[in-house]
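Issue 218. Parser rejects a valid record. Input:
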Amino acid sequence: MRTAKRVLLRGLLGVAAVGAVAAIGCQSRLGGVPYPTPHYLKHYPTYLAPDPAFPLQRERDSMLDPTGEIRRGAAVAPALGAPPDAGVAPPVPVAPGR
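Output the parser choked on:
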């Protein structure tokens, strides 16, 4: 009878251990903060290219030159109160078909 109780007790402890592992999951907690498993280190990082400073170049060109005089090659008089060279580069001409 003693051996039957031991087998039953070991079986219950085994089921409890499997249940505890299943309930905990694959994360560990240290100081209340969940940390992932070390398996995430096996994956390569995803590279995302940095965005340009102003992604809409045509929109920027049209805001800097609403009448299109710079793109046509005409000389533009500086705005009142602005220095002759305000540090703004002229818009880059866009090739047709783009």
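Fixed in the parser; the record now loads. The longest helix spans residues 2-24.
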